[in-house]
Amino acid sequence: MARCALLLIASLAAAASVALGQNDSATCTDPKLTCLAAQLPSHPIGTYQCATDGSICCTDWVSSSCPVCGAISFPPSDLYGCAGETWDAAGQLLDYSYAGYRAGVDNLPDMPKTVDLKDSYGAKGDNKTDDTQAFLDALDDVTDQAVIYIPAGIYVISNKLEIQKRVVLKGAGRNATILRFTKSLTDIGNNTWAGGNSQYTYGPALINFWGTGRTDYTTLMGTVTRFAARGSKRLYVSSVAQFGINAWVRLLLTNVNNTLVADLHSYMITPDTQFNNRARIIMFNFKVTEVSGTARQYSLSSCGAQL
Of 179, 169, 73, nearest to 113 (Cα)? Predict the structure, then answer.
């Protein structure tokens, strides 16, 4: 621990010299230096900066003048901090870092296109023409595991895209292919705003991939036999016979007495009674990383609520 503390102090000195720009000491006030010193060891230098009064802000902008906090900075969140350093897996903020293809563990495959949205369906991508119907037609026409290529452009979409098949929407690259939705979820559908909160706070979204995997009990591998606290990465199941390392498994969660939905919403949104005791209300895919005689361990994602 002493060695670690010495390293942290050394890091403070190095970061302080960069953040201060090695200016004349008269330019940077003592409160700033006091603020920087107070950040260790819990806050990463370079993410946090300080104002003349010693208060901290979040910014990745390094200036040659002091203080750094200004128009392009923002105050740290009590729950998240500046870069997630205060985030707690058992806290009320959900973890979306596992979102995406195979939870971000595997690289995206480079699949060849099946159809071209412009050539085959007349999409314009000119930031003016409504291309919604082109998307809907393509999604309706293509077969399972097709790749719909969306060339560079800005595509105006005025409705949700509900995707029931296993398809890929492949663009020309970041900042090249842009989908611009002109209506919010409230504009498109009814929003009850229960307790002042949007019913769309945690989903669904403007683009929804529903998948085709079966989730009935004919493919059941086992049942969870113990409670798992929010943030836990270990489940105890009735049998591990069908579980293997690196296998992808779907966890089905039932909303017992509305407690699951309430917990996922951090008890900030009154759960809708229509979801009370609904089975399989959450379907969460994960990759198994460890199997023992009585348990399996995995990287838990955003649905790590009380089971």
Answer: 169
**β pairing state of 248-253 and 282-291:** antiparallel
Q: What are the backbone dihedrals phi and psi of residue 258, each rounded to the nearest 5 degrees, phi first?
A: 65, 10
Looking at the chain, the number of H-run helices and the number of E-run strands are: 6, 14
Q: Left, alpha or beta for 45 (phi > 0: left; psi -120 to 50: alpha)?
A: beta
Nearest by Cα to 163 from 99, 201, 212:
212
When pLDDT is cut at 50, 70 and 90, the band that residue 278 belongs to is confident
Cβ-proximal residues to 254 (8 Å cutoff; 6+ apart), any chain: 260, 277, 278, 279, 280, 281
The model's pLDDT over 247-267, given as tens digits with 9 standing for 90+, comes to 888 888 888 888 887 887 777
Token representation of residue 227: 């409670």
SS3 208: strand
